[in-house]
Specification:
Pfam families: Phage_int_SAM_1. With 210 residues, this protein is mainly α. It has ten helices and no strands. The longest helix has 20 residues.
Length: 210
């Protein structure tokens, strides 16, 4: 077994939690998320990657109801970030998820886009819930690009948008996909990337408004 299997990485997270004195009830919640991660990955022997973690963190909509689960978003996101921290440094950074509970790219060319988008949203006057939705979807898209070897938006095109949405569609309901499209489109318009915004229309997602 390699040191980057899902089972090994998740085990390191649990060991770090015990070592830091976390309550058994909290660790139990992590174990529940770990079981979900193992199901998502296809078993504990699957290799853990940052892309796998990003996909897992994004699987927060109920396939049965199509509704967004804030609890799953929180639980899955914090587990993925702890696993990512182990992958990067060989140790679990228990402060990582507190600094950022949403997906964020690491490579500079994409991280700067996220930072500027957040700054714009902070001064936009939009409702806090809307800001949260826009920020979350931007983070998911940018980390998806990163996991597929794209290091800047200059290297992205409509095919990446279609690939990202296809990945979501395999797990999300159609109503959730409409929300995803409406939350992603403002980022592309703000960037002046009409080609990326137009690609959303090619994904066959019906818009929520005429």
């Amino acid at each position: 077994m390699g040191e980057t299997t899902v089972g090994h990485v998740a085990g390191e997270v649990v060991r770090a939690l015990y070592g830091a004195g976390y309550m058994e009830s909290t660790i139990g919640q992590y174990r529940k998320s770990i079981r979900a991660l193992e199901r998502y990955a296809g078993g504990p022997d699957a290799v853990y990657t940052r892309g796998l973690g990003a996909g897992f963190a994004a699987s927060t909509f109920s396939e049965r109801t199509g509704g967004f689960s804030r609890q799953r978003w929180f639980d899955y996101g914090r587990l993925a970030r702890l696993c990512d921290s182990y992958l990067r440094s060989g140790s679990v950074d228990l402060g990582k998820w507190r600094r950022s509970r949403l997906a964020e790219p690491v490579v500079p060319g994409l991280a700067v886009v996220m930072e500027r988008w957040e700054a714009y949203l902070a001064g936009s006057g939009l409702a806090s819930a809307t800001v949260g939705h826009y920020r979350r979807m931007a983070g998911l898209f940018l980390t998806w690009l990163e996991s597929h070897g794209v290091v800047s938006l200059d290297g992205s095109d409509g095919s990446h948008v279609l690939g990202f949405l296809a990945g979501l569609r395999s797990r999300w309901s159609e109503s959730s996909m409409r929300h995803a499209a409406s939350d992603l489109r403002p980022l592309f318009r703000w960037l002046g990337r009409d080609d990326l915004a137009d690609a959303i229309g090619l994904a066959g997602i019906r818009r929520t408004h005429a």
